[in-house]
Write a sequence for this structure.
């Protein structure tokens, strides 16, 4: 049952492609149907659209046969995935894309899943990463997901806020800023540098358990530490960015030392972090459908 549910989760995400394509129209015109002449956002959008429509022919055209899957409960390979598509139709789950970004051959997305009762909640939030290979084919997928919380302590939802990319010339500097925050603060190398990375004037928080501002973050850290349950980041596996948005994928421990995947999306302005969204998922170690690992391939 767990395996079927997780396949359903991935299928739900993939159904978001129609919105994703709409959001990327301003960046490139879809003037050709040839995969090699489409940008990576368009390639991913076309593939995901074919999944939503159960269009197997297009799926095979736009993805590699050895499509690598890192969702731990979904079989790896394109054909095994195609065989599981009826789950999407049978359950009616779909996803809405909120944000869509590109960094080289990686496309990364922020999604909301709707009607998701088959896997434990009516709505869920996810980050997805898809790699496009040098031949313009969808080749690899990673994700992390969590339950959508209706009432948050900040009053912000887990997905609202700006979506427009700005400051493309600052992409690399912003990626370096995100890495410094994680290494110094979340890994404990130089925790006193917090205000060097996060704005003291504006910090919008979308983690449902943390209030806005540096004071809200400090309050949350103090509480978790008092409960001997402070999360610990141990390794950064991937850093992806486009302009003022940066997504980091980290490994760490939480809730009794259990291994977790930490996906953090940051928005930067004026050289400081001014907004944060995240998805935290425990890394399973049993009933796995593949052996690729949630961080494999990064």
């Amino acid at each position: 049952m767990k395996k079927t549910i997780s396949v359903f989760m991935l299928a739900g995400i993939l159904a978001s492609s129609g919105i994703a394509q709409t959001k990327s129209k301003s960046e490139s015109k879809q003037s050709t149907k040839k995969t090699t002449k489409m940008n990576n956002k368009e390639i991913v959008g076309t593939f995901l659209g074919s999944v939503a429509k159960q269009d197997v022919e297009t799926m095979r055209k736009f993805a590699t046969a050895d499509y690598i899957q890192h969702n731990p409960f979904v079989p790896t390979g394109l054909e095994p995935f195609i065989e599981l598509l009826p789950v999407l139709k049978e359950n009616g789950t779909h996803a809405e894309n909120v944000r869509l970004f590109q960094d080289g051959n990686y496309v990364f997305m922020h999604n909301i899943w709707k009607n998701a009762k088959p896997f434990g909640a009516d709505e869920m939030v996810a980050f997805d990463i898809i790699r496009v290979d040098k031949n313009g084919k969808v080749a690899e997928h990673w994700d992390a997901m969590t339950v959508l919380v209706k009432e948050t302590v900040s009053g912000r939802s887990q997905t609202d806020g700006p979506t427009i990319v700005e400051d493309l010339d600052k992409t690399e500097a912003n990626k370096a800023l995100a890495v410094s925050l994680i290494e110094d603060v979340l890994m404990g190398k130089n925790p006193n540098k917090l205000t060097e990375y996060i704005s003291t004037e504006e910090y919008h928080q979308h983690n449902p358990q943390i209030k806005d501002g540096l004071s809200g973050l400090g309050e949350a850290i103090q509480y978790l530490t008092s409960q001997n349950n402070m999360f610990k980041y141990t390794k950064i596996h991937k850093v992806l960015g486009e302009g003022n948005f940066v997504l980091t994928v980290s490994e760490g421990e939480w809730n009794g030392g259990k291994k977790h995947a930490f996906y953090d999306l940051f928005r930067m302005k004026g050289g400081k972090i001014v907004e944060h969204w995240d998805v935290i998922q425990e890394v399973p170690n049993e009933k796995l459908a593949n052996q690729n690992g949630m961080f494999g391939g990064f």
Residues 1-35 have pLDDT under 50 and may be disordered. Residues 168-282 form a domain with the Nuclear Transport Factor 2; Chain: A, fold (CATH 3.10.450.50).
